[in-house]
Amino acid sequence: MQPNHKYLSLGSVSKLLLGTSRKTRIISASGLFFAACTFGAIGFAPLAPDAADLPVSLIEQKITLPNLSQQIAALEQASPQYYMREEKVRTGDTLATLLNRLGINDAAAENFIKSDSTARGVMQLRAGKSVQAQTNDAGSLQWLRTTVVSGRDNPVKNIVVARNGDNFKAVEETAAIQMRVEMRSGLIHSSLFAATDNANIPDPVATQMVDMFSTNIDFTSDLRKGDRFNVVYETFWQNGDFVRTGRVLAGEFINNGNTYQSVWFQEPGSKQGGGYYGFDGKSLKKAFLKSPLKFSRISSVFSMRKHPILGLWKQHKGVDFAATTGTPIRASGDGVLDFVGTQGGYGNFIVIKHWNNYSTAYAHMSRFAPGMRKGSKVSQGDVIGYVGSTGWATGPHLHYEFRVNNVAVDPMSVNIPNAQPMTTAQLRQFRNITGDIMHRFALMQPQKNAVKLASIE
User: Fold this and answer.
1) Which of 50, 192, 200, 399 is the most exposed place for a label (fewest CB within 10 A)?
2) Within this chain, do residues 137 and 238 fall inside the same structural domain, yes or no?
3) 8 Å CB contact between 362 and 378
4) In this structure, are residues 167 and 109 in contact, taking their beta carbons and an 8 Å threshold?
């Protein structure tokens, strides 16, 4: 009977392995090796010590807190604090109210702005203009900058007022200006300026529109409710702020069913300047204006009438334009002053001699414009005097006569010729401009564009 072996010695194991196949022996040996490693790892892994038995040390250190007041004082001495602010001029602003909103409490700076010839430009307090300033914490001005415009054709300037020690200095700098082209349209309900205000069109643009169409439309008597207009004009901006308007580039006016169009054209390189033309290339500048006053009403026409002073029926050989005293009177055409002075019932009187035996006469002036003397040349639109009531006049008005070979004719019905049209070469250049303008007008037609206001940069 074989003994019952409960344990195997290494020698026995070796003998058993020798009796098996090679593959079986390799697998078995590997298993025994990893088993031995496992038991070894379990047997020799150290135990973690109990945290409660760790030694504890208490460290104390005294920390001195910084003096914040001293630090703030040191920072203020090292670098003074400055504050920058920007404000827009409001309607009714004075220099004092503007400086107050900018946080400026500096009497010396205010006095300098009022007294210095360059700095006084800051006092062009046009509503909407931006003004920037830097002050210290006491309100003393460090510098102030704003934009000024001295005229439509003059360059825009930036005025900078800066502290210079205990004093100030003011300099002008050329402004970096961006030009935009804007389009507007409007509808006449009462007057031109009411319509342009409603369409957000600046007054200088409306005034140019009057000049453009004054030879075809009398804006005091010819406007009708329902008349429409479109206008394309320049605007100039700096850093996103509106600076001023520029030239009207094109206009379209539908008056009492008649359409009048004009576009500005200046031949490249020309020293004679440009002018307004119809889309057919014909100049819109006629030899004579339809009215010597921009805005007035006709109080007496060219006809037989009972003289308001003499009480007799006489031929009224001109047209009377009622206007307030001091209203500027314009020369209706280019010419030479033939008479300047006082003449009987005409009062203060001017006669202008034009080409081709035409002449015009202006009576009852309150005063003459500077430089008006016999033999002086005047251009169409030049101010020659101002409305008054001198001579035989019952109230302030202009008596205007249009004469052909010294014979008075009705100025409201005379056939006034246009100026000379373009040459063939100029017309080719002109066509390149009108294409773009016609496209803009088409965009503003009511049936194609319900939006009343448009802007194209």
Assistant:
1) 50
2) no
3) no
4) no
